[in-house]
Amino acid sequence: MPRGSAMGMTITEKILAAHAGLGRVSPGDIIEVTVDRALANDITAPLAIETFREIGAVEVFDKEKIILVADHFVPNKDIASAEQVKKMRGFARLQGIRHYYESGDAGIEHVILPERGLVGPGQVVVGADSHTCTYGALGAFSSGVGSTDLGAVLATGFIWLKVPPTIRVEYTGRLQPFVGGKDLILFTIGMIGVEGALYSALEFGGSAVRGMAMHHRFTIANMAVEAGAKNGIFEPDDITKTYVKETSGPEAGYFTSDADAVYSRVIAIPLDGLEPQVAFPHSPANVRPVSKVGTVPVDQVFIGSCTNGWYEDLREAASVLKGKKAAKGIRLIVIPGSPAIYLRALREGIIETFIDAGAVIGPPCCGPCLGGHLGILASGERAVSTTNRNFIGRMGHPESEVYLSNPAVAAASAVLGRIGDPRELKD
Amino acid sequence: MTGDKPGKIWKFGDDVDTDLIIPARYLNVSDGKELAAHCFADVRPEFSREATVGDILVAGKNFGCGSSREHAPLALKASGIKVIIAESFARIFYRNSFNIGFPLLESSEAARALTAADRVTVDIATGEIKRESDGAVFSTHPIPAFMRELVDAGGLVPYLRKKRGGT
Ligand code: SF4
Hints:
The structure holds 2 protein chains of 2 kinds. Chain A has helices at residues 11-20, 45-55, 79-95, 109-115, 147-156, 181-192, 214-222, 238-247, 305-308, 311-321, 339-347, 350-356, 407-416, and strands at residues 30-34, 37-41, 66-69, 99-101, 124-127, 141-144, 158-162, 166-172, 201-205, 231-234, 265-270, 277-279, 287-289, 300-303, 331-334, 359-361, 382-385, 401-404. Chain A is α/β, with parallel strands linked by helices. Chain A folds into 2 domains: 11-268, Aconitase, domain 3; 277-425, 2-Layer Sandwich (Aconitase, domain 3), CATH 3.30.499. A 5-stranded parallel beta sheet of chain A has the order 4-3-2-5-6, covered by helices on one side. In chain A, α7 links the parallel β9 and β10 (231-234). In chain A, α2 crosses α5 (147-156) and α10 (311-321) runs parallel beside α13 (407-416). The longest helix of chain A has 17 residues, at 79-95. A 7-stranded mixed beta sheet of chain B has the order 4-3-2-1-5-6-7. In chain B, β2, α4 (71-78) and β3 form a beta-alpha-beta unit. Chain B is globular, with a radius of gyration of 15 Å. Chain B is 32% helix and 16% strand. Chain B has one domain (7-163): Aconitase, domain 4. Chain B is of the alpha/beta class. The A-B interface holds A 30, 43-44, 46-47, 50-51, 54-56, 72-73, 77-78, 80-81, 84, 128-130, 132, 144-149, 151-152, 155-156, 160, 194-195, 198-199, 225, 228-230, 283, 370-372, 389, 391-394, 398 and B 15, 17, 19-20, 23-25, 27-30, 42-43, 61-62, 65-71, 73, 88, 90-92, 95-96, 99-100, 144, 146, 155-157, 160-161, 164, 166. Residues 72, 108-110, 129, 131, 305-306, 366, 369-370, 387-388 of chain A line the site of iron/sulfur cluster (SF4).
């Protein structure tokens, strides 16, 4: 393959090249890269551990670089789940893995890893969880893989990858009140479709994301996989640097894309006038602006998950709920993404606002997001959820429905008893 | 290896996600056989009873999208499915399948033309699909060399074991 011309590289290509020990890489190259962080959870770790053993490995490649989090079916919902966590815990002890988190020490993996400074810019992070793409918000190459892949990484510290072509999304304009990262990414997925970025890197940039707070970036990168992307990524800037300093995160390198980098597609998205977005069942691409939703009564509202379980998300939802009550018959469930977020929300009266509004507060974990436990839907029921997927049966019965929104819309919907706009609520 | 006996087809549409293949509530186990018992539980309850060894799954675009759960290809493989033919596959599902030695073929033409009433033979090595009723032949994108190696080895585990000089 001819190459070596002076063409620039994207941030994704630069990080991959650096980790493959190569001067440059091009889309389509199959390369082997070193892994800086390897992540698994209570669902995926047991399979990965089996793979690790089957390969014949005895010791993990680096016990400081492996992170195991029990967050999906915790506190253990049944005997089988308890056995899964037991297997993961036993492995962590045996191997001396320091970054093993469960119970009050845990929280949602994609929230606690950035929050505790365990991942950082310029790193290659692979996780046996599809939303591992979240850390692209920090300027890392970060991608979800399966358990077998992860088991092999645990043993070798390497992974084979095909260098993805990059699609660049340019956001411009100014955000309306109650519009945030969730609306940008839902709108984008609605535009390009659930396979619009299949096998590609999705690079988010433009004047509107320069200066955008980290929690919005995490939400956007988190849902890159919902467009089929291999990774979602932001070029790090001063906001990233401040976040990394505050969390004492690793700084593997602040890469940016060259001005003459090659993109497979550039998508311009002006944000002026963009309303909050709602994804209708059963696809994250089935998106409408909130003013076009019509009358959709709901039974349950869930605020949380790795998409919108951040402190700022809870604060936004609480600002809508302050002094109001969830409509009679609406089950409002709020789950902070981590114990630190829970504590901060508690100290600042945010939790009180939720409880006054009639909410149930769950322990930091995935909760109803994947229909595991803590808020399963019955047949014919509808939920508004700040999560990332609304597939058939995702939160319970196959005949239930999930509508995805940002935290402010979810909070307003709890008060209205139907999907609604926070601007409809009078003080 | 050739599909000597024509396989029965299970036909699906676009965007079949891993929650449909194996709903999350069954993810508290990781044994293929147990997972297979709940494969497509919500949308095709008959699948787990009627799928037999050598059957073929044909689907539209973006098959296997959503969660990275390897339980999905595991459940399908343990159900006896020999190969999946689709217009396209979601990325993680694609990796996961080859990593467990479960082959996938991409062909828009075959994915659109084949129906549940058809019987086909599939040659994984050449990617050739042959319909029994009229002898129609569909060609597919060849499986990349590295992935062929994985399938031939039986998956990433035996592949790595071989590379490490084990058995
Ligand atoms: S919160 Fe939901 S999407 Fe995020 S890791 Fe947990 S189950 Fe997956």
